[in-house]
Amino acid sequence: MKFKPEMRYYILLTVFVLSGIISAAQKENTLLRQGNHNFEKGDYKEAEKDYRKALEVNKESVKGKFNLGSAVYKNNNYEESAKIYANLAENSVDRETKSKIFHNLGNSLLQSKEYEKSILAYKNALMNDPKNKDTKYNLEYAKMMLKKQQQQQQQNKDNKDKKDDKKDQKDKQDQNKDQNKSKDQQKPPQDQKKISKSDAERMLEALKNDEKKTMQKVKKEKSKVQVSGVEKDW
């Protein structure tokens, strides 16, 4: 059977494309297996590198994204793992895989202490797999941690309010002290004693005597110093 030149071209192109796809798939699977091997050894950093390389080959790989999220999570980068799983949850996958994605998303959010969001993620996981005992346990744990967090926040708020009240009371006390001090300064000294009439007369007589002595002293001093007058032409 002979093919026209055009048909031969399309056949060769198809074979080339298919071989490229097969080669890429093989490379992706090799990197995923290598990543899984490192993950099982506990070498999560190397596993993360392998999964990222696999995603360079196939950016849409659900396995690659899921495994990358797990490696990133094990490397304590919970914020990034949460982003990976949140994006992956939008993919169209089977219910079992969807449940696993939401379960891991809940774990990432739980580690980041975003308890309300983690509760929602666990609920979504149970909607896809109601029998998952691990998810049920984690959901109850997240609820407990949320309650503790809310209690702690309320306690911190109460402590802050008490501290602010004490500060306001102290400010008022200081203000009252300043006002009382100002009033005290305006009052005449309390240690001043009233002077009797006889004492006042004696003090007045003493002042008069001192004044007489002073005037006498001034006159005496003036008699010692003679000021010369101007000469007159008359």
Structure characteristics:
single chain; 234 residues; mainly alpha; Serine Threonine Protein Phosphatase 5, Tetratricopeptide repeat; 80% helix; rod-shaped; disordered C terminus
* Beta content: under 5%
Helix and strand run: HHHHHHHH
Give the uncertain stretches in residue-range form: 221-234
CATH architectural arrangement of the domain at 78-152: Alpha Horseshoe
Anisotropy-based shape:
rod-shaped
Please describe the biggest sheet, giving its number of strands, its sense, and whether it closes into a barrel: none
Q: Could you name the CATH homologous superfamily of the domain at 78-152?
A: Tetratricopeptide repeat domain
What Rg do the Cα atoms give? 49 Å
Distance between the termini: 167 Å
CATH topology of the domain at 78-152: Serine Threonine Protein Phosphatase 5, Tetratricopeptide repeat
Q: Share of helix among residues?
A: over 70%
Question: Would you mind describing this structure in some detail?
Answer:
- The protein has 234 residues and is mainly alpha-helical.
- Among the domains are: 17-76, Serine Threonine Protein Phosphatase 5, Tetratricopeptide repeat (Alpha Horseshoe); 78-152, Tetratricopeptide repeat domain (Serine Threonine Protein Phosphatase 5, Tetratricopeptide repeat), CATH 1.25.40.
- The chain is 80% helix and 0% strand.
- It contains 8 helices and no strands.
- Helix 3 (62-74) runs antiparallel to helix 4 (78-88).
- The chain is rod-shaped.
- Mean pLDDT is 80; it is low at 221-234.
